[in-house]
Structures are given as C-alpha cells and as structure tokens.
Write a structure and sequence with these properties.
The protein is of the alpha/beta class. It folds into 3 domains: about 1-60 and about 115-130, no CATH class; about 160-240; about 250-420, von Willebrand factor, type A domain (Rossmann fold), CATH 3.40.50.410. The chain has 12 helices and 10 strands. The protein has helices spanning about 15-25, 25-40, 55-60, 120-130, 165-200, 210-225, 265-285, 305-310, 320-335, 355-365, 385-395, 415-420, and strands at about 50-55, 115-120, 150-155, 240-245, 250-260, 290-295, 300-305, 340-345, 375-380, 400-405. The protein has a 6-stranded mixed sheet with strand order 7-6-5-8-9-10, with helices on both faces. Strands 1-2 form a two-stranded antiparallel sheet. The protein has a two-stranded antiparallel ribbon with strand order 3-4. Helix 7 (about 265-285) links the parallel strand 5 and strand 6. Helix 9 (about 320-335) runs parallel beside helix 10. The longest helix is centred in the middle third of the chain and has 34 residues, at about 165-200. Belongs to the UPF0229 family. It comes from Halomonas llamarensis. This is UPF0229 protein M8006_07785. InterPro entries: UPF0229 (IPR006698), vWFA_dom_sf (IPR036465).
Amino acid sequence: MTYFIDRRPNAKHKSAVNRQRFLERYRKHIKRSVEEAVNRRSITDMERGEKVSIPAKDIAEPVFQHGHGGERSIVAPGNKEFVEGDKIRRPDGQGGGGGAGEGGASNQGEGMDEFAFTLSREEFLEFVFDGLELPHLQRKPLKSMEEVKMVRAGLAREGVPSRISITRSMREAYARRIAMRAPIKRALREAEAALTAEERKDPVLRNPARISELIAEIERLKKRIEAVPFIDTYDLRYHQLQAQPQPSSKAVMFCVMDVSGSMTQHHKDIAKRFFLLLYLFLEKHYEKVELVFVRHHTTAREVGEEEFFYSRETGGTIVSSALTLVNNIIETRYPPNQWNLYVAQASDGDNWDDDSGTCRELLVKELMPQLQYYTYVEITPHDHQSLWQEYENVAAQFPERFAMRKIVEAGEIYPVFRELFKRRLSQAG
C-alpha cells in the first residue's frame, strides 16, 4: 500500500504573482520612470533598484455602491441654512471627499499621494534592457559533449519521488483495480444470483446449509473487493531523464576603448559608462558570454576589467593596432565556427590619417566575415574625422552587421545603447 502525503511548505513571497501582474499592468508608467532614472543616475549605480511612483488617478478603479433610492426625509440638528423642500447640492470631488483622489491641495485639508513602490535590482534591470538582445546570435556546431540538456526519456517503474508521474501512476492504479476486481465481481454476481434462486425455492425444497454457504461466500468476496488497494507500489511510474547534447550558443564580446591623449577625461567617462551598461546587459541576459577588454593608443593590449576602466596610461592613436590584436585573439582562442563574435568600440574618432584606411581593410577582409555584429561609438562634439568616413564604407558593405553612432553628452548613452542593441524582427547571421 502506498500513501501520498503532501508536506510541501507554503511558498515564500506569496504575492509574487500579483506583483508580476501589477508590473505588467503598469508597464508604461514603470518604464518611463526607469528611463528617467537611467538618465539621472550614473551607470555605475545601475545595479540597485529604483523607487517608482504612479499617479493615484492612474490606479483608481471604478467602484459600484448602493445608493439611497426614493425620497428621504432627514432631521439635521443645528440646521440654520435649509428648510423643508430645499435640495442639497452634491459635494465636489470624487466620492464627496472634497478633493480626495486628486493628488493635489484641497481646501478640505485632504488629498491622496501618488502610489509609490520599489523595484528590485532584477526588476529594474529587466525594464532597463527590455527589448534588447545580441543581434544575429547563431547556434554553432557542437564544441564538446560537455554542453548537454536533460530531457525526458519515457517512464520507468523505479525513480526518485520528485520525478513521479501522478497522472500515469493513477492510470496504472485504475487499470490494476479493474483487472483485480473483475473476476471477483463476476464470482460475486454468480453467488448473489445463486442465493436469490435458492431463496425463491419452495420452503420444503430450500437448502438452509446451501443458503448459509452462499451468504458466507458473498461476504468473503465483498471483503476481497474492499481489500484491493487504491494504489500500490506496483502502480508507480517515474519520469526518466537522459542527457542530450546541445548546440553551443557561446558568444564573446570584445570591448575596444581608445585611451589616447586626445581622449579627454569626459570622453573616457562616457566610454566607461557605455561599456559598463553593455557589461550589465550581457550579465543580465546571457550566462555564456565572455568579455575581452582591449585598450589602445599607439599600441594595443588585452587587459583585465579593473585596468580597462581605471588605468591612466595614454599615448598617441593607432586604431589598427587594436583591430589587429582582436583578430589575433579570435584566431588563437575563439574559432568563428564555435563562437558568436561581437565587437564594441568607443573612440573620439581621432586617428593617424594613413591608419584609417588600414582599419577599413582589416575590417572588410579580416574581421567582418567572422563577426556577428560590430558597433562603433564615436564620442565627440566635433565633426567626424577620417576614421568615421572609412567606417561608413564598411557600414555600406555590411549594413546589417555594422552599426555606428555618435555620442556627445552622457544623457545620450542609454538611447544610443538601446538603438544599437534593439531586438530585430528577423535575424540573419
């Protein structure tokens, strides 16, 4: 005999479903508040939540109330203004509250504040990166057997309780009860029919011993039917899981930043904020994305995250050194047939004139055939220089996979970022 006892504790955060329903209902208001928060705070402060306010009038719902019907006669003690037959004017405002629900000042000294609540870090980042993704993410061939997914592989009679199939177990129990009870019920019907036939005989011909025997047999058969268990260990069925190899969807993002002498501290701060936003975006949505940080002036070096953002090293500007280094890293560590490759570059556009053509050649012949997406952000209030012009030629040859935008002030980082990584309806890699 097997018994099912549900000892699962009540789940925590019981209002989680209602909270998600509320966030979805007022998504427009919340998203507007999140965008204002992104423009207001620094990108390094993006990981905390945000307090969001919704006007009370937008969350008000109609309420049906039972009114007083017919004619009413009342006596108001201390009345000095009205006499019998006068009509009393309905109070202004909602529900006769003298301005309640308007959210503003009232001469009644009453009002209603905006509804305020706090978004968690996960909810805040979900709204920040809503509708964004890595463009042209492709499924690559199998890299190794390490990347697997557990999938269901039928049912078995043995397994762990967490994988029990309730529906199939109950079906097996029902079939077993039918099979075990069928011959007993058939014998019971025959015994009851024999007892009825014996009782209908003439009293002289009736056999009392036979009647007692049939009654005992009927009681025995009924007990056998009741003894058939509702569910037995034999009935239990368990879901079986097996490891199924999965195609690799790994990606690597190359963050390339110009740290030459022409890059002022203001330019570097904007570039750092752009890459920090990019890092949070990748961390939020993609678990299998690697980051490679490349700094360059006259020479390029692969550095760690700390040095990438905070090192004070500077020099001239040769952008091709960074592109060459990126290409070498791809050849040695990230085969294009196994990785999705992305590059994000931030610069002020200043470069040696002769080097800009070299950059175009490197991109067209070496990098772009291997990359899924390349983004170039130019941080400058001035006119575009030779590097931008050469990159326009690259964008003309790869319109779907090469994007370039200009940023002047820090407030433009988030809109530009959303434009660069907005979700596309159709993706071609």
